[in-house]
Design a protein that fits this description.
mainly alpha; 102 residues; elongated; 3 helices; Chorismate Mutase Domain, subunit A
């Protein structure tokens, strides 16, 4: 995993807000890539019943908890965010799976 660039010094709330907005833009770009993976998964998986994979979900959540702990960010918060992200991704993938097979 690539480490992000260090944050520049932030002396004012304008500085802080500029960094938050920049980071949000980067997160959205990364989410677009993640959802492109869901598009590919929907195309590749031949059986709708394998879209939901609880073993894989548990592995993803465990990995996020480990990464969060290593990064020094709140593990419960990251776990909750990723729980929602994974469930949203599954729902999205199911919709895409259905659209591809109409």
């Amino acid at each position: 995993m690539n480490d992000p660039e260090p944050l520049p010094p932030m002396e004012t709330m304008t500085d802080v807000r500029e960094q938050v907005d920049r980071i949000d833009g980067e997160l959205i770009a990364l989410m677009a890539q993640r959802f492109a993976c869901m598009d590919a998964a929907a195309r590749i998986k031949q059986d709708r019943n394998v879209v939901r994979d609880e073993v894989r979900k548990a592995a993803v959540l465990q990995n996020v908890k480990t990464l969060a702990e290593e990064a020094g960010v709140p593990v419960p918060t990251m776990a909750a965010i990723w729980e929602m992200l994974v469930e949203t991704s599954i729902s999205y993938e199911l919709q895409k799976w259905d659209q591809l097979r109409k």
